[in-house]
Amino acid sequence: METIVSALAENPLLLLFTVAALGFPLGRIKVAGASLGNAAVLFMGLAIGAVDPRLKLPDIVYLLGLTIFVYTIGLSSASGFFTAFDRRGLRDTALALGSLASAGLLAYLLAVQLGLPGVQASGMYSGAFTNASGLASVVDAIKAAGGDAAVPVVAYSLAYPVGVLAPSLVMSAAKAAFRVDLTKEALTIPSFRRSVQRAEVRTILVTKAEAEQLTVLEIGNREGHEVVFGRVRRDGEDVIARGDLRFRLGDQITVVGPAEEIERIAACLGEESAEAIQLDRTEFDIRRIFVSKAEVVGRPLRALELPQKEAALVTRVRRGDMEFIPNGDTVLELGDRVRVLTRRDNMDRISKFFGDSYRALSEVDFLTFSLGIGLGLLVGLIPIPLPGGITFRLGFAGGPLVVALILGRLERTGPIVWHLPYSANLTLRQLGLMLFAAGIGTRAGYSFYSTLAAGQGLGIFLTGAALTLTSGLLTMVIGHKLLKIPLNVLFGIYAGAQTQPISLTFATAHTKNDLPTNAYATIFPLATIFKIVVAQALLGAVGR
């Protein structure tokens, strides 16, 4: 045993990958339908670190992992974050942050009552709401003050299990108590109802005189149709349906969209044609193409002027597992798959225009990646004053997250594209989480074991459970009963407030749609930052 411990202690890389290799299989084990997922690496790190005080990874491991993790989260969540500032988004955000603030106040009162120091209260709060960023900010502040950074990590680890499992109980209880059929409820939400409608392609014959001389763009704007006009056959010749093209009696035009929308178009222009010209690929063809060229991403489709300059049209976009009908405001991202209509002899040119390189999508532009993280780390060093004389820094967690949100919103700066390919972002995110969980787990393992061996820790566990359950039940009652938010959406808001992927997985497994995911992406970034602030406030307000 001593030989194994010495080998691991003297070889940090061996220790790192041993923790990961044992942790990931553990995270796949399901109990009552829930599993720890990648968070199991943290507990494996705690277990191995508890064996011997020498078994701990250098600080740089968890700091690097945390920075990569929050930066990639910020980039992918940017669009959802900024859409949160419409009327409905403000309501959802206020609900999420209000529940977190209430839990923070409850944590303060319980900590004072139980005599818990601020270092434990802040770690307990971060663990109860599974917020690694909040823990990291607390650890950063304590280390800067010369304190013992293991104390909040132990409290975090004691409260973390209930933070992982309790949200599933809360959502199950809400579904049963409110007697909601989630499938039927989802169909009452217009955006979801449109998204599940299968896109069809039909040919419309222009027969109404009032439609003559109207342009494609005018029809779309006037009726608010969520369709794409493909090609127009006029006098036996096919052309791309550009926005400035004017309809004439006898025109045949292909329309891509949900059946209901196509029927509305047919009623506006004339009738459905007996001839399906979309099946004729003599001159025109359709192909799915990977977007891998930096020059075409980060700009709205109308700015690319495909119909005017390239005689081509994007009729559908597939991003991840979701496919949708684009419009002029749609911004392409690296890794998107676009369905393009153009002449057969122009298809190779269009493929080169978009890139169509699967290999390129697996590559990371480390220049922009490093620039973004570097800017984030600089922002994390800026001292930010709070009421009561408290000063805190966003640190290695908040700084990169804030900068990533801004850069993700900008999409690009001149020739620099800030977004990462979808697959590369996911890979880096998992790598970052693994580094952070293994690093922070091994460093706290021995202290964690010592605390439990001394008969302590039950109070922190129960207090964390009270925080999580109270916050969750308040969110469900206020959100569904008072604000009338559908549970399909409310589950995502709650999971986003928890910043917990396991909660999101549970929500989507029960709703069987992406409504929770969309709400989660909206709430997650601001909730992460807010919980960093609450954790820092607890650290200062309760006293160390």
Description of the structure:
- The protein has 544 residues and is α+β, with helices and mostly antiparallel strands.
- It has a domain of 162 residues: Regulator of K+ conductance, C-terminal domain (Alpha-Beta Plaits).
- The longest helix has 32 residues.
- The protein is elongated and about 90 Å long.
Strand content: 5-15%
Low-confidence stretches: none
Oligomer: single chain
Task: Find the structural class using helix and strand composition.
Answer: alpha+beta
Q: Helix segment count?
A: 23
Helicity level = 55-70%
Q: CA-to-CA gap between the ends?
A: 38 Å
Show the helix and strand layout:
Elements: H1 2-10, H2 12-27, H3 40-49, H4 59-82, H5 87-114, H6 118-128, H7 132-144, H8 150-178, H9 182-186, H10 190-196, E1 200-206, H11 216-223, E2 228-234, E3 237-240, E4 252-257, H12 259-269, E5 270-272, E6 284-290, H13 301-304, H14 306-310, E7 312-319, E8 322-324, E9 337-343, H15 347-354, H16 358-361, H17 366-380, E10 383-386, E11 390-393, H18 395-410, E12 412-413, E13 416-417, H19 422-453, H20 458-482, H21 487-498, H22 501-511, H23 515-542
Antiparallel strand pairs: 1-4, 1-5, 2-3, 2-4, 6-9, 7-8, 7-9, 10-11, 12-13
